Amino acid sequence: MSEQISILEEIGVIVCENNVQALQTALAVVGSELTFSSKEVVAKQASTLEELPAVSSSLAELIAETPKIINIGLQSFTDSIIDNKGEVVHFEWRPSAGGNVELQKVLYFLNQYEFEDANQAVIDKVIQSAPFLLDVVPAKSVIPDLNKKMLLHAGPPIKWEDMTDPMQGSCVGAVLFEEWADNEEDARKMLSNGEVEFSPCHHHNAVGPMGGITSANMPVFVVENKTEGNTAYCTMNEGIGAVLRFGAYSEEVVNRLRWMRDTLGPVLSKALQEMEDGLNVNVLVAKAIAMGDEFHQRNIAASLAFYKEVGPIITTLDISEKEKQEVSTFLADTDQFFLNIMMTSTKAVMDGARTIEEGTIVTAMCRNGKDFGIRISGMGDEWFTGPVNTPQGLYFAGYSGEDANTDIGDSAITETFGVGGMAMIAAPAVTRFVGSGGFYDALNTSNEMSEICMSQNPNFPVPTWDFRGICLGIDARLVVEKGITPVINTGIAHKKAGIGQIGAGTVNPPISCFEKAIEAYAKKLGM
Q1: How far apart are the first and last CA of the chain?
Q2: DSSP 419
Q3: CB burial class (10 A; 0-12, 13-18, 19+) of residue 422?
Q4: What is the pTM of this model?
Q5: What is the model's pLDDT at position 475?
């Protein structure tokens, strides 16, 4: 209450403590004065009704049955009704932009400005997109800057000394994999003294899971968005356990990366070359979303659908039986394998859509353990950042929130597209795994996410959502206006490198990212 009074007084409103004071003040403004006449106390005259009036049927029904109430106000009123077995709908009223007057002015300015056609053009490009998985190649063959001593990382730009321990551990593993050093001590010296350059994956048409560390000889997926002609890249999923993306860099981890470079990548490349136009990703996504995937924490159906496409081809390739067996077993065992394909595809789609350099549609979301960053269509390549949060969720036995690393990874590109936490309702099986409750919690989450999006994508109907399409086009204005931030499904990394994943949950971006973005866009438009 005191905060609201301060806000009102800052803009010149006279705030009174009660109705009498307000009436006196108002009259004083027009030169009048409120006077009170003396009142006579009259004794009550008792009377007896000879006949009670008839009670209407509607009033009798209201008294006899459980009331049905719409509450506009405090949540506690709704809770009281629920506690007393009443039926209630709670209307989520809140002041625009949390009552922040300056942001309200920005929103008013933007809402008067005519760029709705541009916003619609952005989401039209998303709907019309056609991502195809074409190949798996060494990263340096498609990302020229990796031909020098450079490592790509997840999130907006960050320095070595600001990286969390898991991301630094991933860098150590990459240096050992590339054989720039043969031991951890020398690798860390090289990384800390400036011998190795760091750059965000997003600056090279790429994305990376968790730490996102990508080096020259790591195999990457190549996805082309055929409607726009642009391509995107992402490393392959290493499976579970001690893996590079969570900061592990043991000999086992490095040897697995070498096997992926020497065997898995080349075999998948040969299989994809047997497909005339590559693999249509949209077809797999449409199938898998109907089978319970949301494409961030749950990719079981999509990974199996991918294996169904490439498995028969692998059996016909001119390679050794040992290679066929190893690759087939790895693909069958890796439930999250499709995640990296989805990340690559959504990156290609959103990069194609952001060629419309107007409007307030969010085109990228990512985090590096220190900062959460977003981009919007009207501000091109500029990042808007805020301090990253720590995921909340369920932990594996023996771990707790004390062990959790702050959120990292480029995988939030999936939520930018409209899946992951935005499509929680599509994957009831994953809700308990990320600690979000049950089916109706998932339904409430997706319904709330639709409030900050412009539309829904008809290409990907969700059976458990009455076949409504996934959320489409996060509008930064709506995020700020309603105070609702996107929900992101994520794995939880241990804060110490090498231990790996210790749980799964959800995380929200800081709203300051979106506030900065709309303020910058309003300034660009002349406010």
Answers
A1: 31
A2: -
A3: buried
A4: 0.83
A5: 97
